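Handout, section 4.2: multi-component inputs.
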Amino acid sequence: GNSVTQMEGPVTLSEEAFLTINCTYTATGYPSLFWYVQYPGEGLQLLLKATKADDKGSNKGFEATYRKETTSFHLEKGSVQVSDSAVYFCALSEELSGGSNYKLTFGKGTLLTVNP
Amino acid sequence: NAGVTQTPKFRVLKTGQSMTLLCAQDMNHEYMYWYRQDPGMGLRLIHYSVGEGTTAKGEVPDGYNVSRLKKQNFLLGLESAAPSQTSVYFCASRLRLAGVGKTQYFGPGTRLLVL
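Output:
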């Protein structure tokens, strides 16, 4: 079946440092790829997404490029802030039976802590 | 527009007790989902619904039942709670429009502890 592997945390950075969180996937077909963020005590929020190869998703200074050749969707940010401290989940969509419906398959999550 | 809401936020149960988690969305979404989140395991799909009156099993459905009597509500039931069901439960919803890129919107979660 499909799966998502993301780098294990926790990741601890100083403010303004460069961030990379690696994500690779195994899938049949051409899934869409997502990064979700979960701030402490809250639910998941969509951070960015890419629906086809070579697409770049971006939001709030974060970006990730859908690389089909390396089956990767690494999350990057050039200068992190304390407010970026959260758990980040990489996910892919896969079709459920019956067509037109999809479920998300998540990685295990990476805890990011940014210190001032 | 409240989005996706979940009730309750936190609950403690004893083994064998039953309870129902409520998910409500005001975005007129057709599809709704229940996930559980466990440490080091990401989120796993329990059950989902493609419309009022229809439900289907996800990856980890055992020990849970669901109902979708109204389009805006999706209930998750535990008939006889077990310690293995200690988890954080998330509800999500999305539009039916075809396309793998359609976003799922998540609720804030319900933390359940089964003693």
